[in-house]
Design goal:
alpha/beta; Rossmann fold; eight-stranded mixed sheet; 8 strands; globular
């Protein structure tokens, strides 16, 4: 698990080393992770396409607890970002801060559900064999699949909390509008509830075009990963990094060059071009801005001031959050602890706001 986490966020090595000893102690009291796959038959996409068998993979910690009416009352769902999966939240900097005994999302108290989104992890995805013939899914499809997994696969019809990071952050906004009241509260981390446009859309399209415009992509029927995938991976560094931390950890030319080479090598070995293309393209029609008033539960939206993807100077969130009846927006200042867009996966920085949110909607 540590190897996976380091491959995804190698610039956090020092932070992980510091936290590892604490995590190993707490992990002894944490329930084991269970994995499963729910198969949805004849899954219908918004595009009109159908998949005869849709695999929806998931991980859980803790056990469901039912109330007097027989319904699960302690379920929490945490949604990963683009290109990730449920394992994103099992490392020391996340699980070690939130899931341990006495912590905010204590797995002995909560039933924690970590789904792999469509096109990600162990769920159905283009690289399983359909390649570019895989249905063209979007965020609405992904949220509908999550709802199906909960209600049909896990018999959960209500959530205590939906917490989402990056793409999962955007899914949280879609959840709040599509299934009002399904969750007692929402915590979207590192996104905005508006159409993806401007530089955000441009960088995404640059990454997608790098793959599609490469003759080696061959309309998705390649035998080796197309060279354009490297350019797409380069975009990930720009989008997800923090200038302050990059300068701090790679302060010489040789260090910076070595980091880049290692990042590209590691990611090229772990990413499939079709999967990447579908993952980025799934955001194409995301835009919850017009329906924010449908969200009636408490919302704690958090962004970081050093986030390249959601820069504060756009001044979008201050206007959008006023449309949410019980919404609050927090902009985390740049500190030695923030990591740009990746701050969403460091709850040590924002857990006090999670505590505030949980307290607001605590059952009386």
């Amino acid at each position: 698990m540590a190897k996976y986490f380091l491959s995804k966020f190698p610039h956090l090595l020092a932070f992980i080393v510091c936290a590892f000893c604490v995590f190993t102690v707490r992990a002894q009291t944490m329930p084991s992770v269970k994995e499963g796959t729910y198969v949805a038959h004849d899954f219908h996409f918004g595009s009109g396409e159908t998949l005869p068998e849709m695999k929806l993979h998931y991980r859980t910690l803790g056990e469901p607890r039912k109330g007097p009416d027989g319904h699960v009352v302690n379920a929490v769902m945490i949604l990963h970002g683009t290109g990730g999966d449920g394992t994103t939240f099992l490392g020391p900097n996340f699980a070690g801060v939130l899931f341990g005994q006495g912590q905010l999302l204590d797995a002995s108290k909560y039933y924690i559900i970590l789904p792999d989104g469509i096109g990600h992890g162990g769920s159905s995805k283009p690289s399983d064999g359909m390649h570019a013939r895989f249905p063209s899914y979007d965020y609405d499809d992904m949220v509908a699949a999550q709802h199906l997994l909960l209600t049909k696969g896990l018999s959960v019809d209500h959530l205590r909390l939906i917490l989402g990071t990056s793409m999962g952050c955007m899914h949280a906004w879609v959840w709040g509008e599509t299934y009002p009241g399904f969750s007692d509260e929402l915590m979207p981390l590192a996104c905005m509830p508006v159409q993806i446009a401007g530089r955000n859309r441009i960088t995404r399209k640059m990454a997608m075009d790098a793959i599609r415009d490469d003759p080696g992509w061959n309309h998705g029927e390649y035998t080796t990963q197309p060279e354009g995938l490297k350019t797409a991976i380069d975009m990930l560094i720009i989008m997800g990094s923090s200038p302050l931390q990059m300068q701090k950890h790679y302060s010489t030319r040789d260090q910076a060059d070595a980091y880049l080479a290692n990042f590209v090598k590691t990611r090229m070995a772990a990413i499939d071009a079709n999967d990447f293309l579908y993952q980025f393209n799934s955001s194409r029609n995301y835009d919850p801005s017009a329906e924010l008033s449908k969200i009636t539960v408490p919302v704690m939206a958090i962004n970081s001031a050093d986030d390249f993807i959601n820069p504060p100077e756009l001044n979008i969130m201050s206007g959008m959050i006023t449309k949410v009846k019980r919404g609050k927006f927090v902009l985390l200042p740049i500190t030695d602890q923030t990591r740009g867009h990746g701050t969403h996966s460091l709850p040590a920085i924002w857990k006090d706001y999670l505590a505030e949110l949980l307290q607001e909607s605590e059952p009386k």
